[in-house]
Amino acid sequence: MTSYVYVGVAKDDSATFVDIDAMDSGRDPAAHARQLLAEHMSCERVEIWREDERIGVISRPSQAHAS
After folding, report:
1. Residue 33 is inside which H or E element, if any?
2. pTM for this entry
3. What superkingdom does the record give (predicted)?
4. What phi and psi, each to the nearest 5 degrees, are found at residue 29?
5. Which of 13, 16, 46, 65 is a plausible cystine mate for 33, CB 3.0–4.6 Å?
């Protein structure tokens, strides 16, 4: 069975969590990654992997600094 692997990555590029979901679960990978990003404040982005290929990255919106 092929799966998607979601890796939460912090600002220092360390992995903060890993989530695995079967490809046939019916979930949209990007939507699931956005949900994980909302749940895990420890990371700045979620990478979506299928086997040994990174197929997507969902990042937090950048915060504009007030001048």
Report:
1. helix 29-39
2. 0.86
3. Bacteria
4. -55, -40
5. 46
